[in-house]
Write a structure and sequence with these properties.
Rossmann fold, two-stranded antiparallel sheet, alpha/beta, 13 strands, single chain, globular
Length: 255
């Protein structure tokens, strides 16, 4: 089974976060990029599936050369091949376009993504990519197993403590939930060996795309603001009887 894990490079340790006074922009510093946590769970699940059923794992990301570090992490965790699309997909829609085009060239049996990315929190890219590939998908999956040679069974969360068991014919795309597998520590020596692996680099032209195809459209940040401050505690003063009546009134108002 050929498994492709879509990984996103997100800011690592973020410092000096501030909201600009004009332009509704968010400014921050980050000295390095790391693999998105949800995608890291997807990589761990891919390693388990390969151990159980055999096959190949390909780690795929979008971005410049600086994003290659997360591909080396993927290789150290167990990816057999690492692929980078040299593009800047600035919104979830553009990312889904690029990923779908790249996945068509890789011809995967199973595509794994996380449920969301730490920076945009859109939960959009995996589902939109499946739609562009016209393959079945499942979201918030907590377990995966093969069901014969041409299908998988997954357990997906429905909310409210409920779940559903679903059978998906292959090829398919699955957005895995955090915690599907424990995250494993990558020893520095293994990461150093992984850095000797050369990533395959794809351009937009290789995928039959242009900059116009991934231009930001229909998605923009309307405003950025610091969290609203909640009101502080209210002190009930006066005689005890009045304070108790006021407290009971507030409790009734709160339901």
């Amino acid at each position: 089974m050929k498994i492709v894990v879509c990984c996103k490079a997100v800011p690592g340790a973020v410092t000096d976060v501030a909201v600009e006074t004009r332009g509704d922009a968010l400014r921050f510093r980050s000295q390095f990029q790391s693999m998105n946590e949800c995608d890291e769970y997807a990589m761990e699940e891919a390693v388990v599936l390969k151990r159980l059923y055999g096959g190949e794992i390909i780690a795929l990301t979008i971005g410049g050369v600086s994003t290659q570090e997360i591909l080396y992490t993927a290789a150290a965790k167990g990816a057999d091949r690492i692929v980078r699309v040299d593009a800047l997909a600035q919104d979830p829609r553009a990312a889904s376009i690029v990923l779908a085009a790249a996945l068509k060239t890789l011809a995967a049996d199973l595509v794994l993504t996380g449920t969301q990315s730490r920076d945009s929190l859109s939960s959009f890219v995996g589902v939109a990519t499946a739609q562009r590939l016209d393959v079945p998908f499942a979201f918030a999956v907590t377990a995966i197993e093969k069901d014969g040679d041409d299908a998988i069974k997954v357990r997906k969360e429905l909310g409210g403590g409920r779940s559903a068991d679903v059978r998906l014919p292959l090829p398919a795309l699955v957005c895995v939930q955090t915690g599907i597998q424990p995250l494993n520590y990558v020893p520095p020596a293994r990461l150093m060996r992984a850095r000797q692996q050369r990533p395959q680099s794809l351009s937009l032209a290789d995928l039959g795309l242009t900059l116009a195809d991934i231009a930001p459209r229909g998605y923009r940040i309307a405003s950025v603001a610091p969290p609203a401050r909640a009101a502080g505690a209210q002190i009930l003063s006066g005689p005890p009887a009045e304070a108790v009546r006021a407290l009971l009134a507030k409790m009734a108002e709160a339901g």
